[in-house]
Design brief:
By secondary structure, the protein is α/β, with parallel strands linked by helices. The protein has helices at residues 19-36, 53-62, 112-122, 181-185; strands spanning 12-17, 43-49, 67-76, 86-90, 100-108, 128-136, 149-153, 159-160, 176-179. The protein has a 6-stranded mixed β-sheet. The chain has a 3-stranded antiparallel β-sheet with strand order 1-9-8. Helix 1 (19-36) crosses helix 2 (53-62). It is globular, with a radius of gyration of 16 Å. The protein starts with 11 loop residues before the first strand and ends with a helix.
Length: 186
């Protein structure tokens, strides 16, 4: 058996949120969503690729309502810092008009991604639109936004695991760990 302390990547700092804590919190969010969407026959989870895939697969199996899933792929223009400009690399396939959409992302940092995608989706006339994110670095927000279903607030660390990556590495970790940026750059 793998021990959580045997890090498969050399650049990890420490585990901030364990697999068990995530499991517990995702279950709570699913209970809340199941409750909130009792009256909806058209619930859609719309995940942002690729960071949201692990949350999506866990969350969808815990929601006790009929639902449909779709995905979009988006990226911020240029540089490592998120800019206000978000490019749609791949759009969702199912038209969302009339659907109760929950937009699912891995983490909110500046908030530009969620804000930009939300505005785009609202123009496509969903019946409702709410936001779900596993993590939120509240101290780094640059825009006003409301997260309806949030896993955890975290301090301003760069984190990987449970779908989140650093240069495409670390998505497979079952927990959320901080990246030791000095070790990473070496
Ligand atoms: P925002 O547009 O600044 O809110 O950026 C959100 C996106 O940046 C997320 O969907 C992630 O892809 C990425 N991101 C921000 N912080 C982290 C982090 O600590 N680890 C991994 N990805 C992050
Ligand atoms: Mg992302």
């Amino acid at each position: 058996m793998n021990n959580e302390n045997d890090f498969p990547y050399e650049f990890l700092g420490k585990i901030l949120i364990s697999a068990a804590q995530i499991e517990q919190r995702v279950s709570e969010l699913a209970v809340q969503i199941t409750h909130d969407y009792q009256a909806s026959e058209k619930l859609m989870l719309l995940g942002l690729l690729r960071g949201s895939v692990v949350l999506m697969t866990d969350l969808m199996r815990k929601i006790n309502r009929p639902l449909t899933i779709d995905f979009m792929s988006v990226s911020s223009y240029a540089g490592s810092e998120s800019s206000g400009f978000v490019r749609i690399d791949s759009d969702h396939k199912i038209p969302i008009q009339g659907w109760d959409v929950i937009l699912v992302d891995d983490i909110i940092d500046t908030g530009y991604t969620i804000q930009t995608v939300s505005k785009l989706l609202i123009n496509r006339n969903p019946r409702s639109l709410r936001i779900c994110a596993l993590l939120d670095k509240v101290a780094r927000h640059r825009v006003e936004l409301h997260v309806d279903y949030l896993g955890f607030e975290i301090p301003d660390y760069f984190v990987v695991g449970y779908g989140l990556d650093i240069d495409e590495k670390g998505r497979n970790l079952p927990y959320i760990a901080s990246v030791d940026l000095e070790k990473y750059r070496r």
